[in-house]
Each structure stands twice: as structure tokens, then as C-alpha cells.
Amino acid sequence: MANVHQFDVVVVGAGGAGLMAGLYASRTARTAVISKLYPTRSHTGAAQGGISAALGNYEEDKPEWHTYDTVKGSDYLGDQDAIEFMCNEAIDAIIELEHMGLPFDRTPQGRISQRPFGGHTNNVTGKPVRRACHAADRTGHMILQTLYQQCLKNKVTFFDEYQVLDFIAVNGKAAGVVAVELATGELHTFHAKAVIFATGGHGRIFEVTSNAYAYTGDGAAILLRRGIPLEDMEFFQFHPTGIYKLGILITEGVRGEGGVLINGLGERFMPKYAPTVKDLASRDVISRAIYTEIREGRGVNGKNYVWLDVRPESVIKYAAMDGRTNPDGSPYTITAEQVLQKLPDIIDFCRVYLGVDPVTQMMPIQPTAHYTMGGIPTNKFGEVVIDSNNTVFSGLYAAGECACVSVHGANRLGTNSLLDLVVFGKYAGLKAAEYAKHADFEKLPQEPEAEAKSQFEALRNGSDKENAFDISTEMKKVMFEEVGIYRNEQGMKRALEKIAEWKERYTHIRVQDTGRIFNTELLNAWELGNMLDVAEVVAVSALNRQESRGGHSREDFPQRDDANWLKHTLVWKQNGKINIDYKPVTITNYQPKERVY
Amino acid sequence: MQVTLKIFRYNPEVDKTFHYETYTLEAEETDRILDLLEKVKGYHDGALSFRRSCAHGVCGSDAMRINGRNMLACKALVRDVGNRITVEPLLGLKVVKDLIVDMEPFFDNYKKILPYFINDSPLPADGRERLQSPEQRARFDETTKCILCAACTTSCPSFWASDQYYGPAALVTAHRFIFDSRDEAAAERMHIIAETDGLARCHTAYNCTLACPREIPITKAIGELKMATITGKVE
């Protein structure tokens, strides 16, 4: 045990949730933030459209409406106490970000500017409401930069480019983590009273994804291997508008600004599927609508894509048809300059990757794997809970996309991800620091690094019969096709057979790079192991849930079934065997009803 | 189409000095250089090392020299750079392995200019946001785009001469705060950037502006900082 560090609180991951947790925990506890990337490389920075709060800066809005919209968006699977908590905290959270210097766009009165987003409504009229607080189309970038800057200001301790490999628990309590320092290849043990996982999602298990290479489900997989269950892993969000083939995200803010979806026949098709809010329906609804159009032969040129149209003349035409108005009641219009100013990154992506200029041309889009609704089960304070009775695991916390509180249920509303990581990152940090104040360090085991070491050894000493890149490519393709937007029993069984095969093949990988310094090949191979573990839980959970709800659409069970399935899935992996259990959904004010937009 | 990809290689555990390896690959015009590097790593040499994450130009991990110019490998397409492609690490920072350079001097410089919002005045009594007009917000919009990829700083001849020079990226961040109407530490930052290793080392070579994958008008921003330190006015 050469490199041992001791901190009261260790935060794993330095995206929005990890930085927020680090910022808050470090106020009262000795805290380290460990990240496999430089913090500003984290995937929070890719979030575009906005972060929601019922500030009402343009028009009437209230936290209760935000709560109801989130509950409805979740297809009633979100826990309503947690959703209420988040939506009530939202206003203070956004104001706090502004006070930290976050450069939000502004209203003419100098307040934080807000735009419409999918599923955000005035609960009385049912019409879209401006709730998404934005900084151009790089809101996540601004949040990430601002939080990192505040961490520097507050002298938070960082271990940049350290990959956490294992979680250490002693006597049923958190005791630390093991990490590899990428620059040297040396293993380090971080002895801690409290550990917060903020490691993001696992969108890289799918072929077409908006997610970063780093999104390999590390935190979820590490804890799964240590006996912690994962919750609601069947629920994965496919964002309707990814750049065709590449999957790069085109923000919902494009539709918030008046953009519309057009099929291969030149028809605007969303009014068929969501008569009231049309192109601003929930993401799951729109992704299915796009797939339906494509399946029924109305894709563009017989291919797997449709158009997203934000050309000013189209926006003005459809806004007039919808009766959309500005806050002062005048008809809604937009100019090419305004499109450029409000959506600069989107314009840039389209020009660079497609050679298309969205001001004069339509964008080819297809649904893209985007967001992990399920994850490490927590309560609303970020404490990890490990069974149907919500028993807390002492000293272990999770926040952000890797966690499942659950505020997103079966489908997340746009902008609630950024809100989630700010609110729950903060509470996880506060709770962990408070816990650490009264807890003692558990004694570390003799060889805390043993498990991490043996995982690496296996990857260095395989038979070399198999290529990691091949396995990875196959996995992404099969998961996207069989456990994607539409699912059925046969397809998912095929996927599970394949997963078992890949897992076997995985044991034959041998990493060619025998060095220690920045052995990214070893790291990537290790990440593939995480993806395979997580993919298995996703497929098992999805096969098990015999209904359609939110982002989980079963062709063989097309209806939502509240009588049997209004419950959370919990999946454990013990001694190589998968166990499934459930826990009830917390319902406070909103009884489940049919979900129409 | 076929492309030849010539890649700078250096493994400190094996090599005394660097060399180049050339790979011939099948590629699409629309492939990113990052896609090609992934292919080499997956099927030709797993040991090839480079940083990457978001793969669409917003995280700043994969800045490198492509045909002699600083670019993000995920934002450079084959159709933009042609079918004979040379990939090398950024200049001016120590090569750690292959395309990975030591980023610490870069981040150390960033940290010198107080890269965080400072305003110790009482918060608005109504508990809400500080006010800022759209015009005030627009004043520093360009410099909020920086992703700290280091493409600018490592294209700068002054930085090549001395990594003590804060470099364009740090100055861009200084601009982002100095011109933010809500921030109160402009004077302190101006004092810092007026020191020997600050603005004085910018000789308007313009490389930074050309290198920036976020299209930030960096030379212009530095010019505004110079003007502000001369006149003492932030406008």
C-alpha cells in the first residue's frame, strides 16, 4: 500500500454533480474530488438548452406546475416527494448559480432569460411556458465552468486524471476508493469516511449516442460488483434530435425557439401525436413519433432520418398556425440573426459535421441515446439506499446522472438533468460532510487494491484471442437495435444471449500496451467491462418489465400497466446471478392518469 | 477513400526519442480525425495514446496538431484536411506519451488570473439574481465560449519561448471576468495581466485566433485588455 490518502469525503467524478458536491462538502470536511478527466472535460459541458426553474421571468409559472410537469413527464414513475423537493429547490439553485457568476442570457429587464422546452407547460392553459433558463445553447458548459471556477476559488482539492476502479466498504460502511493515476499507472487508495459517486451515465453502450466516450457507467458498474443494486435501469432516454448517424445532440431549444419536425413527405407530423404542444411534447413521445414515421415509410429518401427545420420562414409560418405569441402578445417571429445568436453551437455543429447551414437548410436528425434515467438508488439527500425498504448504506452517496433518486422516473424532462445535478449534488455534499463529522474512519482491509489489481491483471494476461474494439462495436449495435427505442421479448433475449457471449469473449482480451504511463488501452478495456455489466442490467430490467412506460416501449406490451408495474425495479448481481426486486413509487398529490400532450 | 495517417509516436518507457508511424486506412470524407485515431488504436496499435471525451468539440480534450495546425481531432474532418494527414502533439508543452502533453503548465497559468467570479457586495435584497442588461451580457459573450483546450496558447510563439507567459487562454478568461458588469475584481486582474508575463508578451501574431476551435476573436479580446490597462477604463 504505497499511495494512501486520507480525506473525510471523497467525490468520484467532477461534472456538475461532483463539483457541486465537492464545493459543499469542502466547506466543513476535508474533501477530495477525483476525476478520470480534467474537470472541465466532463459531460455536463455538453448540455445545451437550459436548466429549469419556475422563475416566472417572462410569464406566470410556479414550482407546482414544474412538479406536475415532471411527474407527468416521468410517466408517473418518479417519486413525487423527491420531485417536489427538486422543483421547490430549483429557484434558489438557479439564483445561486447566478450569484456564482454564471452568465445566463438576460431579459430586457436584466433578469435571467427563459425559453420554452418540451413538456414545460402552464398547467391551467396547457400551453408551453418559458421555464428553461439558458446561456445561449451552451448552458451546461457555463455551469461546468462556473462550478469548476468556484471550486478553484474555494481551494477544493482535485485529483485530475485519476480513474476510480473500486469501492471499499468495511463493516457495511463506506471506507474509500481505489484509483489509478493515469500519468503514472500507479494505484492509489483513498481512505475516506464518506464517498460520493457522481460518475455520469452509460450512453456509450449504444451505437448512436450524444454521450461522451467517458460515459461508460463506471460508478454504477463498480457498485454493482460490490453488491449495491441498480434501480430502473430499463429506462434510458433517446433524445429525438441527434445529428443523423453521428448522434451529436441538437438541443430541444431549437424547437423551443420555434423549430419543427418534418417528415420525408414535407409534412409537419407532431400535431398527429401531440395535438396540444406538438413539437414540444416529451422526448419519449417525439422519439417514438419519429420512429413511427420512419417505419411507415415517411423517413427522408427512405432512410432512417427526418428533418428538423428552424429556418426563420418556417418558424414564422408554423408559429402563426399555432397562434404562438411573444410575452407582449404580438405574433412570434424570429430572424436569421436571432437564430445565430440563440443557437450558435448548433449552427456550428451542423456546418462542421453536415455541411448544412440551419438558417437556410433543414437538419437531418434521428433519435440518439442520451440519458440514463436509472442508476444507483438514492433518497432525496443523495444517500444510497440498497433495498425495497430504502435502507441507507452508511457513508455512501450518489448524485447526478449515475444516481436514481428517482426524479425522472420513466422519462426525464429536458433541462431537469442540469437541475438534478445542481440540487442533488449539493445535498449529497452537505449530507456526506455532516456524516463525516460524526463518523470514524473504518480500518482499511489488508490489501484494498487487490480487486482492482486483479481486474487489470486479467486484461493484461488474456489469451489475446479477442479484440476489445470488436466486442465494443457489436455491443453498441445490438443494444441500439434490440434494447433501443422499441423493444420486444425476442430481441431482448437475443441481446442477452449476445451479452453472455461478449462477457465470455471479454475474458480473452489481452491489452497490447504493456506500459504504465497513460495506458489508455488498459483503461478503455476496463471501461468496456463496465459497459458489459451495465448493458446486462439494462437488458434484464427491460425484458422483465412487461409494460410500456416513458422511455421503455415494448411492442409486445404496448400499454402502461399501473396495476402491475407502478413500481421501481431493483437489480442485484450476486455471485454471478441476477436478482430482481421492486419498491413502491412515492405518490403524494398526483394520481396516475393517462399521459397526453 | 484511402488516407495515410502519419502519427507522432513517443513512449517514454521504451523510446529514447520520438518517431513517426504511418498507417493506411479506409475512411469516409466525413470521418473525424478522431475516428481515424480510434480505428488505429482499435485495430493497428492499441498502445497509441491520446485524450478524448465528448467527440464533438465542446470538452476540449483532443487538441492536437493536424497537418501543422492546432485543431480538435473531433472537429477536423477528412474532407477538411485531405487524405494525407499528419498528427502531432501540441507544441510548447512537454510530450508525455504520443499525442498526450503535460497540461499542468497550461492550467497553472489559467489559475494565475483569478479565474472565478468575484463580487463581495451584498446580494439583491429581493433574494433574486443580480441584474445585467442584454447589452452588458453581450459585452463578454465571446470569451465565455472557451473550453480550455489549449489550441490557442500552444500556437503562440511567445508561449513557445516561455511557458511562464500566461498565454491567450488565460487572457481570454481574464477578459470574460473583467468585462462582466457584475464582477468586482477587474482592477486586481488588470494588475496581474499587466505584469511581465502577461499582456506584454502578446505580439499579435494572431495564431491564437486562427487556432481557436470555438472561433473566439482572441486577438481582439487581448487588444481590449491592452486598451483597458492603458486607459484604466473597462468599456
- Percent of residues in helices of chain A: 25-40%
Number of strand elements of chain A:
22
The CATH architecture term of the largest domain in chain B is Orthogonal Bundle
Largest sheet of chain A: 8 strands, mixed
Distance between the termini of chain B: 52 Å
User: What average pLDDT do the residues of chain A reach?
Assistant: 97
Describe how the helices and strands are arranged.
The complex is a heterodimer of chains A (597) and B (235).
Chain A: E1 3-12, H1 16-25, E2 31-35, E3 51-52, H2 63-73, H3 80-99, E4 114-121, E5 128-133, H4 139-153, E6 157-160, E7 162-170, E8 173-181, E9 187-197, H5 218-225, E10 230-231, E11 236-243, H6 253-256, E12 260-262, H7 270-273, H8 283-298, E13 306-309, H9 312-322, H10 336-342, H11 344-354, E14 363-372, E15 376-377, E16 383-385, E17 392-398, E18 403-404, H12 416-438, H13 450-460, H14 468-482, E19 486-487, H15 489-506, H16 520-544, E20 553-554, H17 562-565, E21 567-574, E22 577-584
Parallel strand pairs in A: 1-2, 1-9, 2-6, 9-17, 15-18, 19-20
Antiparallel strand pairs in A: 3-5, 4-5, 7-8, 8-9, 10-21, 11-14, 12-13, 13-14, 16-17, 21-22
Chain B: E1 2-9, E2 19-26, H1 33-43, E3 63-66, E4 69-72, H2 78-81, E5 84-88, E6 95-97, E7 100-101, H3 104-112, H4 134-138, H5 157-161, H6 167-178, H7 186-193, H8 207-211, H9 218-231
Parallel strand pairs in B: 1-5
Antiparallel strand pairs in B: 1-2, 3-4, 3-5, 6-7
